[in-house]
Amino acid sequence: MVDLNTVSPKDPAKRYYLALGLEGSANKLGVGIIKHPFLPETGAAAKDNSHDCHVEILANIRDTYVTPPGEGFLPRDTARHHRNWCVRLIKRALLEAGVRDACAELDVICFTRGPGMGAPLHSVALVARTCSLMWQVPLVGVNHCVGHIEMGREITKAKNPVVLYVSGGNTQVIAYSDHRYRIFGETLDVAVGNCLDRFARTLKIPNAPSPGYNIEQLASQCKNKETLVELPYTVKGMDLSMSGILAYIDSLAKDLFRGNKANKVLFDKKTGNTKVTVEDLCYSLQENLFAMLVEITERAMAHVNADQVLIVGGVGSNARLQEMMALMCHDRARGRVHATDERFCIDNGVMIAQAGLLQYRMGNYVKDLSETVVTQKFRTDEVYVSWRN
Amino acid sequence: MSEEITGQVRTYVTDNIPITLISQGAEAVVYTTPIHPYLPIDDSTKGEKYIIKYRPHKRYRHPSIDQALTKHRTVGEARLLSKLSQIEGLQVPKLIACDVYNGCLWLEFLGQDLPQGAGFSNLKNFLWMHAANDPYSNVVRETLLKVGHQIGLLHWNNYTHGDLTSSNIVLVRSQIVDGWEPHLIDFGLGSVSSMVEDKGVDLYVLERAIMSTHSEFADKYNAWIIEGFSNVYKLQGKAGQKKLDELLKRFAEVRMRGRKRTMIG
Amino acid sequence: MDRPYAVYESPDIPSKKFTVVPGNPRYETTDGVTTRPSDHVLNAGQIDRDKPSEPKREADGSEQFTKLSQLRMNLTGLQDDINEFLTEQMDVAKAKKAKLDSLEQDARIEEEINGLLDGKDDD
Lengths: 389, 265, 123
Description:
The complex is a heterotrimer.
Chain A: E1 16-23, E2 28-37, E3 56-64, H1 75-97, H2 102-105, E4 108-114, H3 118-135, E5 139-143, H4 144-156, E6 162-166, E7 171-177, E8 180-186, H5 192-202, H6 211-220, E9 235-236, E10 239-240, H7 243-258, H8 278-304, E11 308-312, H9 319-333, E12 336-339, H10 342-345, H11 349-361
Parallel strand pairs in A: 1-4, 4-5, 6-11, 11-12
Antiparallel strand pairs in A: 1-2, 2-3, 6-7, 7-8, 9-10
Chain B: H1 3-13, E1 20-24, E2 29-33, E3 50-54, H2 63-84, E4 95-99, E5 104-108, H3 123-133, H4 138-156, E6 159-160, E7 169-173, E8 180-184, E9 191-192, H5 196-213, H6 218-234, H7 237-260
Antiparallel strand pairs in B: 1-2, 2-3, 3-5, 4-5, 6-9, 7-8
Chain C: E1 5-8, E2 16-19, H1 39-43, H2 67-117
Antiparallel strand pairs in C: 1-2
């Protein structure tokens, strides 16, 4: 029995909660404003409604720090981007949501406490603290990964799914049990999004709108889908490793770029003609990495006896990954896959507001500003999930 | 459970071999059959059951990855099982027949039903059954020490399992004493390896699996497994102790790495 | 108007105060030295769209900067001071660590040689 009404809304007459969410753990700066209606079930009658809060999204604005092709984003420059745009984005979001008096109307301000890059996290947390003091609104520090999960659950209404969380910095298979999101499998080295980003950099594939998106487009244009470029397949139990694959495909990409004819995988031994194109490499890399992801997800499903999968995180918007996952779910248990589109998959402020508001409604918010110090390392299973049964 | 997979298997084994599904793992489906592939049906084989482990074609992955994996894993598992069965004290299912291109293994059947309708006798169900009344009872302790012993034997002989979970350990009622004999099954990701890293990861994977499915009692359960594991190495004298120290050190490192790895969202 | 200041404390440094020096151009701009985009991305062709806005002057034609803009400029200068100081501290810490590491390395190599002499078999 979870009572999501333990804290009453700021203005009890309004019968709803309003939350502002601020996200800036990587190169996306997101501001979101959401509304939760006050649920009729209170006290003993309350059910676990955390995946069905009837959320209303009043504003969801994002600005991405984009670097030139071949370059990654550095913490310092990313933080600078966030510092410069954060106030403007908040102003726009408040206007869009029709919030005239933040001080009187907002119930809570939620911000990403980690995991992520230190400097960008820090610059956004500073804005959150300032707004909180200025408007006298309580703060909630949110785990970024939990934000993704809660948003995905609310949008898709998936009941207790196995969660595949795939982004630039994370690759985890998660299942909920006993008030924690437990990590069943994860990458032992680099994250899948990072692997794609770095491969894109070697090939100077543009970073806008995102390197992963461009790889997906190139892969879909591959003309020779029957033959794959053979890559290492490195599933280790429920975990996986991607550094070896990255190193190998990166060396292929470099040879292709430089026209190194000595490479037999890429060039015909006799004629010296190219056998493999950039599109082929993108296609093979996706097929290989995603097969591994689907496999470890299936392992977790078998282990906890689940029939649904929820994909969250930036890489989760990839149509091929969703398609493969859907095939697996169907064949496995006539189950289904839940995914969201780029508005919610890619880092955003709304997801931070969603997870933060749930936490706030359970009475768990910042009592002292010292609790708002951001942390680069913050595991998904560290969070006590009080809002679920 | 998908009908298509069972359809595939029925076409493959033909109607002469009746099959009953017992589990659909992530990678393979497992059936029981009363038929032995080459022994005649007589009094000695009557009432016996055998396992057919079939790796179905996975539609989600590219055909060339699928074929390569199926063959590679079936060959690997068959080869591994035949070698493991020669190690004294190590308990794994016996290999009866295999067809690597079709991803099929014929194996000895292990395990039985647990009392009180607690399901099949794998370690997961066994621990869940005991969690209800006495999670730290003597039989649980004894069993987990033996589980550790089995893994210890495996590692000491330079093999790794690759996917140690509480569902991949099957318990068989002991013929000699009142208790259970753990058997390791599903060597689909197993390998020959003398690397401390692989062994450390093996232990870490099991520790995490125990933590995820038996979270409340995981600390003690894991400690018992490691105790049983360590005893195998300690019996090997000074060299064993040295290897054990090295392994446990790496195990701790893998655990730290797993937990502290920087995660950028 | 009170000017902003900052104080740094650590086990090594009991207290270091950063203050605005009136009249110094460092504290009269919103474009800090240490808060510009890194040369690395600029060289790669980055277009800087994240530049802080120019300070604003009072609307009464007095040429005075607004209170908020004055604060922004003062903070930009202070931020530069702090960043430069912290970078120095990092260099000091790095040099210390490098010295320690090289000592550790020597010890490890020695141990390995001894180990091999004793017939140690590496995994």
